[in-house]
From TrEMBL:
Name of this protein: Beta-glucosidase
Active site: E170, E383
Organism: Photobacterium indicum
Keywords of the record: Carbohydrate metabolism, Cellulose degradation, Glycosidase, Hydrolase, Polysaccharide degradation
Catalytic activity: Hydrolysis of terminal, non-reducing beta-D-glucosyl residues with release of beta-D-glucose
Record-listed substrate binding positions: Q24, H125, N169, Y307, W429
Amino acid sequence: MSTNKISSAFPDNFLWGAASAAYQVEGAHNVDGKGPSIWDDFSHQPGTTHEGTNGDVAADHYHRFKEDVALMAEMGMQSYRFSISWPRLFPSGRGTVNKAGVKFYSDLIDELIKYGIKPMITLYHWDLPQALQDIGGWESRETVEAFEQYAALCYQEFGDRVSLWSTFNETLIFIGMGYFTGAHPPGLSDPKRGIQACHHVFIAHAKAVKTFREYQHQQRIPQNGQIGFVNVMQPHEPITDKPEDIAACKMADDLLTHWLYDPVLKGEYPSHILNITQLTWGVPVFSLEDDDLLKNNICDFIGVNYYKREWIAANPDISNTKINTTGNKGSGQEFGFKGLFKFVRNPKSTYTDWDWEIYPEGLCVGMQRLKERYGDIPFYITENGLGAKDPIIDGEIVDQPRIDYLSSHTDAAESAIKQGIDLRGYYPWSFIDLLSWLNGYQKQYGFVYVDRENNLQRKRKKSFFWYQEVIESNGAKR
């Protein structure tokens, strides 16, 4: 852990926050007119999640948001990144607006502002309205148009008070695990359908950016307002210097990084990968306006979700898309796609109980690599944290490993600033213990513990008080 310092390299206007997502924290899955999402449906199917856990109640943030915001204020949070539940606003994905849903988010925003906490809204954190999945989900252009309508409603209702927005969270995960590995809804393993769905996500993003700027021009959103895109940042390294491992690592970069960053920061796909997908599967299919939409609607910033680095090896023979969801260290198998690449463990590295490598320097390395490819773009670290089974000792949640993890990663963030990275905020995952999509409530990330045996009582962890000092000192004490 770092020693206390008098000052830090973090600028005075740096935003110290924390993050969450609607499905994982809100609960109230069927109250006040909310419609079902794909996760409401998927998590109720046998065998899809750890011990059948779901977001029906989650942390019940929907009913307890004032209590939660007061805790945010006590900790000193300057910003709160949260997502809006699309089916809470449009129960059928489009058409009739649910006024009770609009009121909930309006009240949440007002409560944050009352305490001087700056909202950062994520429009899509994976909970697609089930009604839209029933007509094809992200494979359908109708969903693209519905997302544009949904984004416009959010700008109209909340844009006067919210200046930081992002469209999508982690396309790599909700498309990759939804359409390639089948672990997330809609539970498919079909690259052709997945690539087309991914393309529609980028078009929906571009349309939402275009609408955002129209609202900004009309002065319905602050002129200093910004809209971005949130991606996984996962630096890759070849496990050896063998040509086949280096080639596999380059392929991992192209497919898992460049394919997902290029469309929102360059307005186009990596041409050589696009040629491969179109020759192999005939996708993505472009509509006439798609090229111009991508080119003319580059986002204002990039949000990076950083948890780990991956070591890459050539993969002539293994196809495995299962991951460690038990929290038993070493129980995960090598993840990989035959003929492309696989993720392998480095015996010299340190790993979490979920087999994620702990490598703080990757936070700085990853942003430097992105800067080299895309120029001097603004960054927000929109997620970063340690998933663990936190020990309770004499009634205190002693999550020292989380403090050590976050301390080392804020060191890396400060190093990035010193090296010229335009880093504007840090949002650890997560403010409060919430539902892990596949791991249930056994995998904890929060500064605030939720006692599921005692009426969801909130309890401050040791990390709560640590982060309080970090914020108060603008990163000097950590």
